[in-house]
Amino acid sequence: MNKKYSIVIHGGAGTLVKGLMTPEKEEQYKAALNEALEKGYTVLENNGSAMEAVETAVKHLEDSPLFNAGKGSVFTNDGTHEMDAAIMDGKTLDAGAVSLITGIKNPISLARDIMEKTDHVFLAGEGAMRFAKSVGYTIESPEYFYDEHRFQQWQNIKDSDTFQLDHSMKKEGKFGTVGAVACDKNGNIAAATSTGGMTNKRWGRVGDSPMVGAGTYANNKTCAVSCTGSGEFFIRGVVAYDVSCLMEYKGMNLEAAASEVINKRVLSIGGDGGLIAVDAKGNIAMPFNTEGMYRAFKTSDGKREISIYKD
Ligand code: ASP
To answer: pLDDT tier at 57 (50, 70, 90 boundaries)?
Structure first.
């Protein structure tokens, strides 16, 4: 049995500059991260799998209106909410992903159901909704996802061609795609990511989050990764898999590989954001090239941190 186990979560990266958010708001974010972290960690502590831990943590973040996933999802150009999610098991390389879905409270669970209950990896749009209904999901009304702040974000840009990262605003706001990675007591690792995408997105835009290899990846041989940031660049950089490749083919350790990708490779093509990662020994990494990233980790050797800003 692996001695060390660990979990890392994120709630999005972006223009999170100290002093722009009220202390009360900051506390709310930290409390939400803390709850999700503890929920996921408890699963690991009780001999649960990394898959179970990441799904549990992400579900909790999806249920919070603070983050751009599930309940807090941003508005599309059509005034709807279209969500993406993916989950991957590093032990088997099984994966499930879903995109362009509406009305689903916990897209991450739907991604897992696609992995476990179909022969497919990735379902999108109407077909994904039909599958969801066939396995018993209830469809929430648009009111469940309505949030005044997100509505205003969208109103500000809806008549333009602009689409924007939820967390790239120079004012107090609600940020964040969410994700979790974990290493369990057996040394199995997993990754999960869930998002509402970018405000004012249109034409069925899909980001990196649900794409295996771009925003989400897990392989026991190397690492489990969940990304957040400007999805177009993360897709082109095949970011999550790139971290894995640097470890597998170049022999880099987790921290060096994760930092190389975020601080050099994705930055060199113009991408801003960050990622969280674990390896099968329970080591963790959380690099980001933006001002901040909502993040938290806990390891069985007693280390724990919840932070937002760079230092
Ligand atoms: N990466 C996500 C996307 O492009 C956005 C984010 O991380 O907030 O859909």
So the answer is: very high
